[in-house]
Amino acid sequence: MKKFKKEWPFHLMLLPAVIMVIIFNYVPMAGVSLAFLDYKPAKGLAKAAFVGWKQFETLFENPNFFLALKNTVIIAGWKLITGLIVPLVLALLLNEIRKSWYKRVAQTLIYLPYFISWVLMAGIIVDIFSPTDGLVNRALESFGVEPIYFLGSNTWARFTMILTNIWKEAGWGTIIFMAALTGVDLNLYEAAVIDGAGRLKQMQHVTIPAIVPTIVLVGTLSLSNVLNAGFDQIYNLMTGVTMETLDIIDTLVYRIGVQNGQFSLATAAGLFKSVVSSFFIILSYRLADKLAGYKIF
User: Fold this and answer.
1) Fewer CB atoms < 10 Å away: N or C end of the chain?
2) 177: domain CATH number?
């Protein structure tokens, strides 16, 4: 009780955020019941018949669902891998820049795409990767390479999604590693210099080992996003031609629920994703506790 009296201002500051989470995250969870009902908007929720697991059976019999699941795992998996490696490499490179003004400019240019919405970014990407007058194909043409339909070919679609996601998101991820790098003891670098270590050896034997706990923590916590392939990006860049390789669970749920009005089936698909994601969230925090000593509570 004494501790609460001492910290009550902090609890009071947290209260608005807790209320918002309850309203927008927990209250809507009542809608999960639609996954077990035969809901028709015209009849209303009160007259919806209970059908048990029927919606899930219908979902699992739909070949589009397993295609979307496959695409989700592949795209999300590559995003998780690149989302760990690329920001780490960028942070290590930025850490080696000694001119402060150049470092600030480089950081700003790397971070800037993160603050652009995927709606605007999609337009930029379409222009850049256009097969007729896009910047990328113009550069390839100068080397004698035929134009490539990056956004209209199933061969290149996933690669383009992963590449553009790196461009937009990697800068923000570097902030975590840059913060970790500021905590490295400078005496370790001085000792390495005395031992004759160059810049590369210092990075190999001092910098990277010092931030291994952060790398492990970021890597394990990212497991919770194993079924989050990025709805905003895929929805704005996917075409009918590339649906075979880009259609993910989120876009499938959108089509089933919003476009086709099959709310119960869409809820079942969303619930399946939530349950699997919850398992990986629990697993990621267990691993973070075991490998990096990270605990929320």
Assistant:
1) C
2) 1.10.3720.10
